[in-house]
Structure formats: C-alpha cells, structure tokens
Amino acid sequence: MRPIDHFFSQLERLEQSLRPGEVPDKKTLDYLEKDFSALAGPVLGPQEAAGIFDRTRERITVKPDQKFPLHRFGALAAFFLGEFNIDSMELANDDWDDVQETLKELSGEIHLDTLTALMQELMNLGKLN
User: What is the dihedral of CA 27, 28, 31, 32, to 10 degrees?
Assistant: First the structure.
C-alpha cells in the first residue's frame, strides 16, 4: 500500500468513528499532523507541512449534523505528492489559496522542478489566482 493510500485509510477509519458534530481530540490531530508532515514534508519542508496542516485545521468548521471532513487533509497531502484527483478529492477555496500562498513563500527554497509541477497543477485545476 502506498503511503498516501495508507493515510487516506487512516482518515477514513477515524472519520467513520466520529459522530456528527464531533471534532477529533488534540492527541489524534497531533498524530495526524505528524503523518501529514511525513508525507508533505519532503516536498515542503517539515515546518511548512505542519503549518499548512494547522492552518487547514483552523479553517474547518463542523456543523452539528456533519462529520469532521478529515479527507481534506488527505486531499491536501495528495496534491503535494502529485496524486490529487479532482474527481474523488475535494478542497475548499481557502485551502487552494493557502496552497498557492505557501508555494509562493517557498519559491526560493523548494526544488524548481517540483515548484513548476505544483504550480502547473494549480493552473490545470483552475485554482491559480
């Protein structure tokens, strides 16, 4: 099983265990942040991977009748790994804005080929502002 598939599997199991309106506890979110950073860290750097995870977590609001959308973390990791599938994954507009801003901030530090591929994917998805 590929690491991104394992991460999605973890997210799905956790999401199914939550009741509508319930938010994962801090320990669980910290664990997920480590797993996310292990995936996205080689692309972004560990500190920035943890930062984008935290910013995404802060933007998520859960209504009493909805489950916490953990799949967004998987979609975000998949994007940075070049595995994003627009037909089966979803990110909010604010997430895309954060991705773009993060890439701009890291433009001098990230490998040029990686930066070019990620910006091209943003453009292909119609998410480049």
Answer: -140
What span, in angstroms and rounded, lies between the C-alpha atoms of 110 and 85?
23
pLDDT in tens, 64-80: 899 999 999 999 999 99
Please provide residue 98's backbone torsions phi and psi, each rounded to the nearest 5 degrees: -65, -40
Which residue blocks in the chain are alpha helix, DSSP H? 3-17, 26-44, 46-59, 71-80, 93-105, 112-124
What pLDDT score does 108 carry? 87
pLDDT at 49 over 90: yes
pTM listed for this prediction: 0.92
Sequence-separated (6 or more) residues with CB below 8 Å from residue 121: 79, 82, 84
Under a CB-based contact definition with an 8 Å cutoff, are residues 47 and 54 in contact? no
CA dihedral (6, 4, 54, 45) in degrees, to 10, reads 130
Please answer whether residues 56 and 79 qualify as being in contact, where contact means their C-beta atoms are separated by less than 8 angstroms.
no
